[in-house]
Amino acid sequence: MDFAVNLAAGFMNLFTLGAETFVSWVTGIVPKVLLLLIFMNSLIAFIGQDKINSFAKVCSKNVLLAYGVLPFLSAFMLGNPMALSMGKFLPERMKPSYYASAAYHCHTNSGIFPHINVGELFIWLGIANGITTLGLDATPLALRYLLLGLVMNFFAGWITDFTTKIVMKQQKIELSNKLKTE
């Protein structure tokens, strides 16, 4: 009987923990994402849709800009997850590759710029604590992580370009390579 009681209690505890997680999202990440979305749309309105489209058009002409500079700036300025939404200014064919690069930028840059991905800060702090316990400065490690991330995140986007072409061919679809302006 104790086994059945413990099983039922564990089953209900699963839903209790799920509800606590949901409430933490409603009071934590959901308002943050909503405010970042409002901020991003306000910034775009302030700068001007045409200027943003022009910048994206310039970035879409060069893979270094599209998968190196734009995702880094987006991660730095907007943080995770809003940096991922900047891909909406690129042509359809580049969006999967931009996402691949930008998603990684939201992780590899957090040692130097912890505001980018606050949810993962505990990982970096754990690593940094180990380094400082050894009597070492964590800044060189954070810089190396950032610099290696800049290179590898670019390659993640660029390689995704090739896999996107393979999938397009396999699925017999063609994604537009022209920037759509609304």
From TrEMBL:
<protein>
    <submittedName>
        <fullName>PTS system glucitol/sorbitol-specific IIC component</fullName>
    </submittedName>
</protein>
<dbReference type="Pfam" id="PF03608">
    <property type="entry name" value="EII-GUT"/>
</dbReference>
<keyword id="KW-0812">Transmembrane</keyword>
<feature type="transmembrane region" description="Helical">
    <location>
        <begin position="142"/>
        <end position="162"/>
    </location>
</feature>
<keyword id="KW-0472">Membrane</keyword>
<dbReference type="InterPro" id="IPR004699">
    <property type="entry name" value="PTS_IID_sorb"/>
</dbReference>
<feature type="transmembrane region" description="Helical">
    <location>
        <begin position="22"/>
        <end position="44"/>
    </location>
</feature>
<feature type="transmembrane region" description="Helical">
    <location>
        <begin position="64"/>
        <end position="84"/>
    </location>
</feature>
<keyword id="KW-1133">Transmembrane helix</keyword>
